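Posting for a labmate who doesn't have an account.
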Amino acid sequence: MASKYGKGLKTAFTTLEANQGYLANLERLKAEGSLPSDQYATMKDEYNRRIPPAESEIKAIKNTIERDLDVAKKELGMVKKELDTLSTRTQVGEIPLEKFKGMDTKLRRKIAQIENDISEYENLLKAKCAADIWQVSAGKSGSGYNATGF
């Protein structure tokens, strides 16, 4: 679920980094004296105008990720509580063991998925460049729920 933000974030970082690179190259050309000053000024303005929208897009995507992360953490707490309640209901005899097993498996899968989403959200929030986004996508891993310690 978190991966839906990776593409947009990577695109925004790529745009930002490309224009920062263009500016650096432009400065090098100016220092070498191989670029007329009017052309330098025009191109510098153009590249500088492209940077703020990319920065704004990165900030907007990360703000959305933070909101989704908060929702996922709350959902995780509720599902873990539901699992604990299910276990207690089984122990007191309210829910038969066979029914418990199916419900338990379903809840544990849901917990693992939410934990994976949380991990992806956190990694996307840590991203400082486009290359970090690739690492997030390649580094997916799930985790399980331990009933003895959250």
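Reply:
Got it, the structure tokens are right above this. The chain is about 80% helix and 0% strand.
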